[in-house]
Design a protein that fits this description.
Length: 352
């Protein structure tokens, strides 16, 4: 069984900045949603997962912010054009019957990490643009990492060997590499003056952050580097805590809860129509529903007397209530009319 876990905020963010501006006729931004949906459908086609779940960040501060005031302090606020698309992306996931998870006090990464360890016998595929998730790679978990290329972007699959080939350390050791080098994007300090190359070499040689500090007198550590490590010891161990993805959250879901289900077709069709995603209506096989709607006519109460004779000539009429209006389907035509008791009485008293 294969579980695909989406780092939803990361994918939406990359789609937003990677796609050209795209809006509905009314001016509603849709580029992030369009890119997100394109990626999602390709993943389903290529990876053929049995289960899917979408992890989201929350606006509230997490335990990392309480641990270190400077955590992500330099991050700019999310662009309003992107922020407005996230709720719609969530509705699309709901319509596709893909489970969403988000927890106050935690990041989406922590949800992802916990799920990869919660089901040890399940093959997990993490979809993200964040290299921090590489620390979660093991014999049952791989990462599909979105990377920038000259032609746009591509996904690179990372298993244990790919991580070791790229960084020279095992996946779990990447946490200690980050503890030394820090992470400017998250404002994690690390050890000032030591970058990725130096940090990777130290962990590759000594195996762990603790071992590095136990061997500061080793001849391979130059005096200047030793001085930086000594000055940054407290910062290094704090940074490791900040960079470690939690894998032990209390998430009450079973693997059965995450199995791929049938779409909610009417809800999905409505959302895609609102977004003006005609291409996706076809890709989801919802073209027949579009055709079933036929002509749409808005009828006001004043025109009900004109509508009634038309409907009385039809052999088949379907209707339902929609807020303060009556929705009537007759011979491929969809009518929306303000309910009128006389109109309804005449409609239901017609001869059959």
């Amino acid at each position: 069984m294969k579980l695909m876990i989406l780092d939803s905020n990361s994918i939406l963010n990359r789609a937003f900045f990677g796609m050209p501006p795209l809006t509905t006729k009314a001016g509603e931004p849709t580029n992030a949603i369009y890119g997100f949906l394109s990626i999602l459908l390709k993943l389903i086609q290529d990876e053929k997962p049995d289960c899917m779940v979408a992890a989201f960040d929350v606006k509230e501060k997490t335990f990392r912010h309480h641990m270190y005031d400077g955590y992500k302090a330099q991050r700019k606020a999310m662009a309003p054009e992107l922020a407005g698309q996230i709720p719609i992306a969530k509705k699309l996931l709901d319509a596709m019957s893909i489970r969403r998870l988000e927890y106050p006090g935690f990041e989406g990464d922590d949800i992802i990490g916990t799920l990869t360890r919660k089901f040890p016998d399940v093959e997990c595929v993490i979809v993200t643009g964040d290299r921090d998730s590489l620390q979660l790679v093991n014999d049952k978990t791989k990462v599909l990492l979105s990377v920038s290329t000259r032609s746009g972007s591509d996904s690179v699959s990372y298993g244990i060997q790919q991580v070791m080939d790229k960084y020279g350390v095992a996946p779990m050791q990447l946490i200690d590499v980050k503890a030394i080098m820090g992470d400017s994007s998250d404002n994690v300090p690390g050890v000032a003056g030591i970058g990725e190359k130096g940090a990777s070499a130290l962990i590759a040689k000594f195996g762990s952050l603790e071992k590095v500090y136990e061997n500061l007198d080793d001849p391979s550590i130059k005096p200047a580097q030793r001085k930086k490590l000594e000055a940054g010891k407290e910062s290094a161990f704090l940074s490791r805590e900040l960079m470690t993805i939690k894998t032990d959250m209390d998430i009450d879901v079973s693997i059965e809860d995450l199995q791929i289900q049938n779409y909610h077709e009417e809800e999905l069709f409505s959302l895609l129509t609102h977004l003006e995603f005609e291409k996706f209506i076809d890709r989801f096989g919802l073209q027949s529903k579009k055709e079933d709607v036929g002509i749409q006519v808005e009828i006001t109460e004043l025109a009900c007397d004109q509508l009634l004779p038309i409907l009385l000539d039809e052999q088949e009429i379907a209707f339902l209530s929609e807020e303060d209006k009556l929705v009537v389907f007759a011979d491929g035509v969809l009518y929306r009319t303000i309910p009128d008791h006389a109109f309804l009485s005449a409609l239901f008293s017609r001869e059959t």
